Amino acid sequence: MTGRRAAGGFVAAVGATVFLAGCTSPTEPAPDGTADAPRTTATQLLKVTEVHPETGSTLLEGPTFGPDGDLYVVDVTAPAGEPKVFRIDVETQDVMPIHTDDISAFTSAQFSPYDGRLYLTDIAGGAITSITPEGEDPQVFHAGEVDGQRFSPDDLAFDEHGDLYVSDFTAFPGAPLEAASLGGRVVRFDAETAEPTVVLDGLASPNGISFTDDFRGLWLSQYAANRIDLLTLTEDGKGAASVHPAVYVDAGSAHVDSNAVDAEGNIYQGFEGSPRIVVHGADGDELAAIELPAGDVAAGLSSATNVAIEPGSDKGYIMVSGAAGGYVYEFTALAEGIRQSNGG
């Protein structure tokens, strides 16, 4: 999720490519310290949403490809009754609203390999809901506290069996970010029983969460620390075998947001407050920086929070939002998409 906005006692996740079609010189040095990495420019594909007068913003998040080949996205700040989940045909650029409700602030979306349903994290209500690919039959998978603590689900990732791993942002109302971040966690939910297990706590408001290409660990983008940590899981997947800072991100005044991983294990990192994506190798090296056209940024696009790469293809898509609305941009990725390439 991006653009965390304090609202009504919770931090709303108002919450993303590399060698693109229609790019600038890939060797042009970037002005923000990424001169050693190739710099490219994404291409605008389509506009999805306008800024909502009721909330004062729009925020596209949770890009994920469905079994039908369409791209599913959420609008975190959509008001009650307005479309909150969209299905997009990236070839025809048709956009179809498929789901809404009166209370949720959905921050991510992923299709479960266990039951084929689309799972949505609601940071406002502390809930996880699932729907059909058509947006029907909403079911509450989890709601309420986890281990006696308020639960603020931001992004999610599925393991090979369909168990859910969720970043619990958990920023406490009224506390400064440094203090608010102390409650951040990674929570695992059993696919069959929905039983939660705290895998790791004491995190700096974790946001992005993606499995490594071998499913042995998780890349965690920590919003309040501006770094990406590598969490290696225990054999049963219910605990942390190890965790260490893996990539310190040059974010400036922005914050790291969601992430995604391609078939070669590269990490695509999005930002709240900066319209760009950076790509790091699993060894930490920065491989590429992807930006928006300068005119688009000047027109009011301020964040590039999440990215998805189509499975089996190098076609990538970035969720971009700001005062100009919510847009999808396209790029050519460094490697093909896999399950971990769906932004979560």
What would you say about this model in short?
With 344 residues, the chain is mainly β.
How is this structure best described in words?
By secondary structure, the protein is mainly beta. The protein has one domain: 6 Propeller (Neuraminidase), CATH 2.120.10. Helices cover 3% and strands 47% of the residues. The chain has helices at residues 177-180, 294-298; strands spanning 4-7, 10-13, 39-41, 43-49, 60-65, 71-75, 85-89, 94-99, 106-111, 118-122, 127-131, 139-143, 153-158, 164-168, 184-189, 196-203, 206-211, 217-222, 227-233, 240-248, 255-261, 267-272, 276-280, 286-291, 301-309, 315-322, 325-332.
Radius of gyration: 18 Å
- Mean pLDDT reading: 88
CATH class categorisation: Mainly Beta
Across the major sheet, the strand order is 3-24-23-22-21
Secondary-structure map with pairings?
Elements: E1 4-7, E2 10-13, E3 39-41, E4 43-49, E5 60-65, E6 71-75, E7 85-89, E8 94-99, E9 106-111, E10 118-122, E11 127-131, E12 139-143, E13 153-158, E14 164-168, H1 177-180, E15 184-189, E16 196-203, E17 206-211, E18 217-222, E19 227-233, E20 240-248, E21 255-261, E22 267-272, E23 276-280, E24 286-291, H2 294-298, E25 301-309, E26 315-322, E27 325-332
What characteristics describe this protein?
four-stranded antiparallel sheet; five-stranded mixed sheet; globular; mainly beta; Neuraminidase; 47% strand
